[in-house]
């Protein structure tokens, strides 16, 4: 994320709040930026640091080409200090070293910026040491605390920071981020249907259970079309053994909902909304087998099955009734 104009697309509210303070020269002595992994917290901190140090910025937008901007990009700016967990936690010694740096004048100006990633992982002693810094802020110093869990920080630390909450990524933003990690567009599209959290999506992308669940959904739909007599055996020997827990069965039905919605999108010639991108041939076959009216009924039937599961109706009975109703 190289500019505020780009960041506005991802985090408009937080970006507006920070850039307004930059324009008015009212940068806070301490910020607490919290939100899910992948929502741009580190990028926000980097941009804020650039806007503080850049001598050629236009309004609030750093130039990206001066020595200060380049040093921040490379992690070598002498007056920008970063702290990350040393192992499982941020330790007292790390904050003590930070305090030592606080006492020095900036090497190239009087300004200093500190970014503490995963601030919630500070030990109690480390957090209390940091609190002392925040209680006596220097006018030329800006501390930026980043966390996914702001409630784990001391209330006294939170009270001394301007708190900024990043919002979850929308599906398209998350899809692009997943593709940047090497995940295919088809898989990214499915993952973003089930979560807006980057960490959860990445975990799900490596989940063999979820991959198999997707295959079983496609197999079930094919059997409902072509091998109807074998559906009860399939449900008993493959579907139920895989979807053992109620939450797993709900996820299986969610995948089935996505599949049938895709068939409607295929009927309507709306490929941009299709989730099962790698199953276009099978979606075409399904669209020839079921009309939009049929699909609409099936979607209602699946939703009713989900409600029955929540009411603790026997899971296998629910699935058997569901498949019978779809076959009518």
Automatic annotation (TrEMBL):
Protein name from the UniProt record: DNA polymerase III subunit delta'
MF GO annotations: 3'-5' exonuclease activity; DNA binding; DNA-directed DNA polymerase activity
Phylogenetic classification of the source organism: Bacteria, Bacillati, Bacillota, Bacilli, Bacillales
E.C. number: 2.7.7.7
Keyword Transferase: yes
Keywords of this entry: DNA replication, DNA-directed DNA polymerase, Nucleotidyltransferase, Transferase
GO biological process: DNA-templated DNA replication
InterPro entries tied to this protein: AAA+_ATPase (IPR003593), DNA_pol_HolB (IPR004622), DNA_pol_III_delta_C (IPR015199), DNA_Rep/Repair_Clamp_Loader (IPR050238), P-loop_NTPase (IPR027417)
A Pfam family hit: DNA_pol3_delta2
Every AAA+ ATPase domain range: 27-169
Superkingdom of this protein's organism: Bacteria
Catalysis: reaction(s): DNA(n) + a 2'-deoxyribonucleoside 5'-triphosphate = DNA(n+1) + diphosphate
NCBIfam families, sorted: holB, PRK08058.1
Entry GO CC: DNA polymerase III complex
């Amino acid at each position: 994320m190289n500019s505020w104009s780009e960041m506005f697309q991802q985090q408009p509210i937080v970006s507006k709040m920070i850039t307004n303070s930059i324009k008015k020269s009212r940068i806070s002595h301490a910020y607490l930026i919290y939100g899910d992994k992948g929502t741009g917290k580190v990028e926000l901190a980097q941009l804020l640091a650039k806007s503080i140090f850049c001598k050629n910025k236009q309004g609030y937008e750093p130039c990206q080409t001066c020595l200060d901007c380049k040093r921040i990009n490379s992690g070598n700016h002498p007056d920008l200090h970063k702290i990350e967990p040393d192992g499982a936690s941020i330790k007292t010694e790390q904050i003590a070293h930070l305090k030592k740096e606080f006492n020095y004048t900036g090497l190239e100006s009087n300004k200093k910026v500190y970014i503490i990633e995963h601030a919630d992982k500070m030990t109690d002693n480390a957090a209390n040491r940091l609190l002392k810094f925040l209680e006596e802020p220097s006018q030329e110093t800006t501390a930026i605390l980043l966390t996914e869990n702001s409630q784990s920080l001391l209330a006294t630390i939170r009270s001394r920071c301007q708190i900024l909450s990043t919002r979850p990524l929308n599906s398209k933003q998350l899809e692009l981020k997943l593709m940047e990690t090497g995940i295919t567009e088809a898989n990214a599209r499915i993952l973003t249907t089930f979560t807006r959290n980057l960490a959860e999506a990445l975990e799900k992308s490596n989940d063999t259970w979820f991959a198999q669940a997707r295959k079983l959904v496609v197999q079930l739909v094919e059997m409902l079309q072509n091998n109807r007599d074998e559906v009860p055996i399939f449900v008993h020997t493959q579907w139920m053994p895989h979807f053992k827990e109620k939450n797993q069965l709900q996820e299986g039905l969610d995948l089935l909902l996505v599949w049938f919605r895709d068939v409607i999108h295929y009927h309507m010639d709306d490929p941009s909304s299709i989730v099962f991108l790698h199953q276009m041939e099978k979606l075409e076959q399904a669209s020839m087998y079921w009309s939009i009216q049929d699909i609409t009924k099936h979607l209602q039937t699946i939703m009713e099955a989900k409600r029955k599961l929540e009411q603790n109706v026997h899971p296998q009975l629910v699935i058997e009734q569901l498949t019978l109703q779809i076959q009518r």
